[in-house]
Specification:
By secondary structure, the protein is of the alpha/beta class. It has nine helices and nine strands.
Length: about 250
């Protein structure tokens, strides 16, 4: 069951305490970690409650839901524009819609997707932030670039120079290991940080490559210790999703 506004406020306070403590242990500023509220399968009313509590960034797995909730501009409590992050894998035929509705896509894992996004964004005269998803845990059920191919993939993009003027390569994303033990994901997160730092240092097309989207409710402390700049949290903030009644999905 979804939380009421007051319940959301209480759970946000508890989550913020965890984030603050993790940042303190890691010797980092709380401001160095962005909280992305994962609003998938939660209605627009829940998004409005989150905005009332200060949320500025929302994550959606499915493009259809992102369109439903974020096609119209929303204003955050601080006066900034609410940002929509598409965090799930995007099918090729939905990349255009994703590029239009999203401020940032976390799940890019092919040159074909990069090229298609560039064409769409050029036509829209839009600059889009993208992150490249890596299957750092090497789990068959997870999407993303193979860990053994990720560096070559990024090097290939570097060799293309300024071929993608409407895309900002912002960093990397991964999902921690599904073992229920946060510490099991540390090696994955460290791998991502090292790769991100290597390419950020190259400059050029990677001049803005300073983001690491990693860490969720169960492993956010380890992710923050390993350099995460964006953590993705849903159920702990919104309550349990009702998968039997999905949000309107036109496709």
């Amino acid at each position: 069951m979804e939380f009421t506004l007051d319940e959301m406020r209480e759970h946000l306070a508890a989550l913020e305490a965890r984030i603050a403590e993790a940042c303190k242990i890691a010797g980092r500023s709380r401001d160095s970690v962005k909280l992305v509220w994962v609003s998938k399968f939660h209605p627009a009313e829940a998004v409005e409650n989150a905005i009332a509590l200060g949320a500025t960034d929302f994550g959606e797995n499915r493009v259809q839901e992102a369109e439903l909730k974020f096609s119209e501009p929303r204003t955050a409590k601080d006066g900034s524009r609410v940002r929509c992050h598409v965090i799930g894998p995007v099918q090729s035929n939905k990349l255009k819609k994703a590029a239009i509705v999203a401020d940032c896509i976390h799940s890019i894992a092919s040159v074909e997707a990069v090229e298609k996004l560039e064409k769409v964004c050029a036509a829209q005269n839009k600059i889009l932030d993208i992150l490249f998803q890596i299957n750092a845990g090497e789990e068959e059920t997870k999407s993303g670039l193979d860990v053994h191919e990720a560096e070559a993939f990024l090097a290939d993009l570097e060799s293309r120079g300024a071929a993608y003027p409407h895309l900002r390569f912002r960093g990397l994303m991964t999902i921690g290991k599904n073992t229920g033990v946060a510490e099991d994901s540390r090696e994955c997160f460290a791998f991502l940080r090292n790769l991100q730092q290597k390419f950020l240092a190259k400059g050029g097309v990677f001049a803005n490559f300073d983001q690491l989207s990693m860490g969720m409710t169960g492993d956010l402390e380890v992710a923050i210790e390993e350099g995460s700049t964006m953590i993705r949290v849903g159920t702990a903030l919104f309550g349990e999703r009702d998968y039997s009644k999905p949000v309107n999905d036109p496709v």
